[in-house]
Amino acid sequence: MMPIRLFSTRLLFSIALAHFALFALPGCGKQGETEMPSRADGGAGGGAPGARAEQQTPKLVVAVIPKGTTHVFWKSVQAGAEKAGSEMNAEIRWQGPQKESDTARQLEIVENAITNKVDGIVLAPLDKDALVRGIEKAKAANIPLTIFDSAANTEQYLSFVATDNKKGGQIAAERMGKLLNGKGKVAMILVQPNSASTGDREAGFEETIKARFPGITVIRSNYGNSDRAQSLRVTEDVLTANPDITGIFGPNESSTVGALQALKNRNLLGKIKLVGFDSTKQLEASLEKGEIDSLVLQNPFKMGYEGVKTIVENKAGKKPEKRIDTGVALMTRENMNFAEMQAVRSKE
Questions:
Q1: Which part of the chain is CATH 3.40.50.2300?
Q2: What CATH number belongs to 58-162+300-326?
Q3: What are the φ/ψ torsions at residue 25 (nearest 5 degrees)?
Q4: Which of 94, 92, 83, 91 is nearest to 57 (CA)?
Q5: This prediction's pTM
Q6: Superfamily of domain 165-297
């Protein structure tokens, strides 16, 4: 029996010694200790403490709420917002109504963002009056809210990032007046009631025509409600009622697309001058062919980028400008390939 007991004692001693040696090896610390940072965390052997703290800073959550999500314009806004988010450590929560006539849904999205306590909201109000409630609720909840693209009838916002829409309408009117040599009849395809952005374009166009080109009559259509098919129908109605129309102004993408299709349907391309607003690959192709005379362009990418930037600046204790003008320009067949136009042309 003695040899067996001696063998067991030696075996237990050997196991204990091996166990002790294992824990004495470098890198084999106690369970739950933080591992050394990898190269991605600042390089092997440890990075600067400041860099590690910066990586652990939680992202700001910014809700970006457009008027809609289907048109190319809004996709460009989204790209700008996400670019800003990636550069400024912000998570972008992009959500808007399916239809650009669904004001109730947009208000619901705003109120949900407030309930979820996001760090900031960037909003393009569908209705300048109906969205005031949501904007002022955000203010009461101490959530900074920046308006972009289209104004609202309140001052309870951080910043307003947009095109000078009235100027855009004026530019379109000047172009149309010269095309028609100051005489004729122009149909203006209305976009949506109580939309500040397109309403300003329509007002700028009509006021400039009356002041500068009294020989031109402006015919106001029914509203196309930011829908291409409906804009097509209202353009058809105007052309039927006014066969002597010599020009058409589309104050946004959907109205321009609808008007273009109506002219195609009636074999009137090039015979009736079309000045539109905004850009898509389809509209640019028609401009190149001479089917559209010109397009007034905004910078939706810049709107999204600058909108998010104002929220980030505010959270860092800075005061962004109350009004940020993102610019407007007229694109024609002659200048569409110039560098300044390439910067704002459609990316899709």
A1: 58-162+300-326, 165-297
A2: 3.40.50.2300
A3: -70, 145
A4: 91
A5: 0.81
A6: Response regulator (3.40.50.2300)
Beta bridge pairs of residue 64: 94, 122
What is the rounded distance in angstroms from the CA atom of residue 137 to the CA atom of residue 158? 13
Q: Can you give the pLDDT of all 348 residues of the chain as single tens digits?
A: 444 443 343 433 343 434 333 333 333 333 333 232 333 333 333 344 444 444 567 899 999 999 999 889 999 999 999 999 999 999 999 999 999 999 999 999 999 999 999 999 999 999 999 999 999 999 999 999 999 999 999 999 999 999 999 999 999 999 999 999 999 999 999 999 999 999 999 999 999 999 999 999 999 999 999 999 999 999 999 999 999 999 999 999 999 999 999 999 999 999 999 999 999 999 999 999 999 999 999 999 999 999 999 999 999 999 999 999 999 999 999 999 998 898 788 766
- Determine whether 202 is exposed, middle or buried from the number of CB atoms within 10 Å of its CB (0-12, 13-18, 19+): buried
Q: Which two tokens stand for residue 344?
A: 């704002």
